[in-house]
Amino acid sequence: MCTDTSCACYRYVFFVTVNGKEYAAAPLYFTTLGPSIKPVSVLLNGNGGSVSPGFISVTLEKTYPALPTPVREGYTFTGWYTGTSSSAQRVSAGDAVPATPPSSLYAHCEKIPVADYTVTLHVYNGPIGTNFPFCWECALACPICSLPSFCCGRRPNCPLLWCSRCTTPARWR
């Protein structure tokens, strides 16, 4: 006899007619199992960063497992989302996995702001006599000579240049 409540049980009784007389055979019980719940793979898209592992396995209508933290230089990770847009739904470990989970989760990150500073150079223990801006991503203007200078080009439209002849070592404390 079937007693499992997570499945449907059916009782079939077969009758046999022999010489006009009907006989009942022993009842047969059949069980139909509920839907098979298998893990589903969800791709983890670093969205410009790197992430390992690149996917997770989730079980429908259970909870999301621990999610890895992606790495993207110059950015802070803010969370996993169902899409790349700002209107996408955030997904965290412990959240319920929907009956139709997303095929991918996307990392969202915020750029770490880069500050500009003013630096005063003192050459041979004497001041150059001027303050000028310093860009961490490029370099600084050369107040010493008029040789052609160059910029690293990582910051668009940066007005600051670095002279390759007059480089000055610096130590930050």
Count every beta strand, where a strand is a DSSP E run of 2 or more residues: 13
Mean pLDDT, as a whole number?
Answer: 71
Largest sheet strand order = 6-5-9-7-8
Q: Which structural class should the secondary elements be placed in?
A: mainly beta
- Flag low-confidence runs: 125-173
The assigned CATH architecture of the largest domain is Sandwich
Largest sheet features: 5 strands, mixed
* Range of strand content: 25-35%
Overview of this protein structure:
There is one protein chain. The protein is an all-beta fold. It has three domains: 1-34, no CATH class; 39-111, Sandwich (Immunoglobulin-like); 114-173, no CATH class. 0% of the residues lie in helices and 34% in strands. The protein has strands at residues 8-12, 15-18, 21-24, 28-32, 39-45, 55-59, 75-81, 90-91, 104-111, 116-119, 122-123, 126-127, 132-135. The protein has a five-stranded mixed β-sheet, with no helix packed on it.
Brief write-up:
The protein is an all-beta fold and 173 residues long. The chain has strands at residues 8-12, 15-18, 21-24, 28-32, 39-45, 55-59, 75-81, 90-91, 104-111, 116-119, 122-123, 126-127, 132-135. The protein has no helices and 13 strands.
